[in-house]
């Protein structure tokens, strides 16, 4: 029995088309013609031995087999890129000091630092998790080489930075309470309660804390401080225990809490937050640039994940 050897170049075209929502755009990005990408996708289906796409209106969507292959494609390409980076930077040496906030401690650090350490074992990394004001201060004093910082627009951008994305700021409550046994302050029931809305917030000074209280004041919704801490982990614990509502972006939410639709709950809509990656220098050393590249890859919007029971879709019909 012959073994199927998937072509990584073909898998990259396949993955890129899904990520961009269009194989025509994928062809442009990869520097190929649409006919070349079409031929690659036909080859991929032949190797897979099954259909990877099906018609969906004016476009295409992945079959279940296509979804499965896409997941493997991401893993194979990531491993290939990691190996290539390791060969390019086999002799890379130095020291990188990374600062970030707690939102990314469990989701970003293991992935990024693990990949970096495997590819560049001679580079020493120091990471610290502190709040945005301290990150800015450490960058200014030259105590950090890289920092991942949330920005609410209350500070002008610092030098040598790039905004990676804008993330929605949302109200968050406990995921534990069943629908019929929710606390009296649960937003869907708040209109029937004379009590002030309890808030679970980080200690002042905190721009997100100010956003929450100012938004509620403008909406005429009474509130009170139910819990305050300098630790994000403590906020998650208090929120999941049902002490009140907090607010944060979707990054790093534990399963014990859930986002709340502001319109449905009668809560004020919140502004988005920008996520910036700052460097301490205009021309940093090679290890800093490499770590910045990995952080960027981990943070930037990923290929869209289909809702349960629905396949991912590409709007054009290149494979036809």
Topology:
Blueprint: H1 8-20, H2 23-30, H3 34-48, E1 53-56, E2 59-62, H4 64-88, E3 94-100, H5 109-119, E4 123-129, H6 132-140, E5 146-151, E6 161-167, E7 170-174, H7 187-190, E8 197-202, H8 207-219, E9 223-229, H9 232-240, E10 246-248, E11 257-260, H10 262-265, E12 273-279, H11 286-299, E13 313-314
Parallel strand pairs: 3-4, 3-5, 8-9
Antiparallel strand pairs: 1-2, 2-13, 5-12, 6-12, 7-10, 7-11
Short description:
The protein has 320 residues and is α/β, with parallel strands linked by helices.
Would you write up a description of this structure?
- With 320 residues, this protein is an alpha/beta fold.
- Helices cover 39% and strands 22% of the residues.
- A five-stranded mixed β-sheet has the order 4-3-5-12-6. It has a three-stranded antiparallel β-sheet with strand order 1-2-13.
- Helix 1 (8-20) packs across helix 2, helix 1 crosses helix 3 (34-48) and helix 2 (23-30) crosses helix 3 (34-48).
- The longest helix is centred in the first third of the chain and has 25 residues, at 64-88.
- 28% of the residues are buried.
Task: Calculate the terminal CA-CA distance, rounded to whole Å.
Answer: 30 Å
* Beta-strand proportion: 15-25%
Which value, in Å, is the CA radius of gyration?
A: 23 Å
Helix content: 25-40%
| Unreliable spans | 302-311
Shape: globular
Query: N-to-C SSE series?
Result: HHHEEHEHEHEEEHEHEHEEHEHE
Mean pLDDT: 82
Decide which structural class fits the backbone: alpha/beta
> How many H/I helices?
11
Number of strands: 13
Q: What is the topology, as strand order, of the major beta sheet?
A: 4-3-5-12-6
Largest sheet: 5 strands, mixed
